[in-house]
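Table 4 source record.
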Amino acid sequence: MAMSEWKPLVPLCAGAAMLLLDVTVVNVALPSAAAELRAGFTELQWTVDVYVLALAALLLGAGSAADRFGRRRTYVVGLAAFGAASLACGLSPAPGALIAARAVQGVAAACLFATAPALLDQTYRGRARGFAFGVWGGVSAAAAAAGPVVGGVLTHYLGWRWIFLVNVPVSAAALVLALRLFPRSARDPRRRLDLLGTGAFAVSAGALVYLLIRGGAVGWTSTAALVLLAVCLLALVVFALVERRRAFPVLEPALLRRKPFLGASVAAVALTVSAYSYLLYVSLRLQTHDGLSALQTGLVLAPLGVTAMISALLRGRSPDHPPPRVPIALGLLLIAAGALVMLVAGTSWPSVLVGTAVTGTGTGLVSPVLAATAIGAVPGDRAGMASAVNAACRQLGTAVGIALFGAVYARHGLPVLYAISAAVGITGAAVVWPLLRTARPGRPRTHPIHPTGPRAPESRSRP
């Protein structure tokens, strides 16, 4: 790719880095924030939880809005809102203000996560498309693992507020670049927003994520947990009934009958459960048992992000791209192998270093291909929907995995977590292999596009 063809990747990768870092970057800064704001434990939990709740619950709605109003516009709005919310977080005078700002951050993150793959899909094609998705996927995987490291460094040297304030200039720069580099993407004024479907999914996903986050604390069979489960299931039934009757649903049920799309969704869940869900508990073990600091622990886990970036870039630069099921299945098997390394070699930091390096290699193979495969399985005007569904599967997989692993860790410790991770990776590879049999690296285009990179300049005048 020529240097000019790199430019559209910058705002997209910046958005991915910010939104995924902010899932975990807060954890190591919570004690400092609590001391300064005089926040209680419940308020600290909400600072973390409300971001994940908003992000997971509104992803489908953001994807539908992107198809209706244009992906460029939705992404730009997301960048502006994320920067403003980050500033509000950094200047928060009280716990309530911080929680409210984090909720807005989550909404903005949903706009970014739901639209970025669709923007990549409309901007690149051919080898450039594979490389672009490789870079974006590598950055995403690295950012997901780098939160504790970044949070530890910023909190130690600059203070907890800077974990949010650092997003402000990044958001502003990415916003300027997005406005300059992305042509106005197609809009469908006839497409009505599915507010009822969006609301039903948001309630169902929100209740599920909150149940998974708080279930261990309140008791899985408590009245509160059972009420949350009932709300989740009822809202899911309403969502399914609504989507069957909508002319412009937020999720077309017919898409789930497309095996490549379903396979990419299953792989997204398997990826996040097997690769990321145990990291929190590994971090706790290294700090409480091995005596490592937060910064040292982050450095031990850093190979996951580094090898993910390297493998994603190497695959993107390869002139030959096999069918998507090959890197996805191989990547899930490598993730399982990384977990098995730690299961066999033990939980000391050297074995974690090696195991996460192997796992990172697998995630670097899977992450870039997932979104491209999901988008490639649907018509072009449903790219935002496909991108949002795949992102929602990843976020819900993370929430499910963390909750499941938390319950197991409390009783059985890390070895069983590694065994579960390996089992999920192997099972995921076996399930997606037949589902992705007909999946292809790209989708035939119905609009003009530059043969090797971004769209030609004349496409910028498109309404």
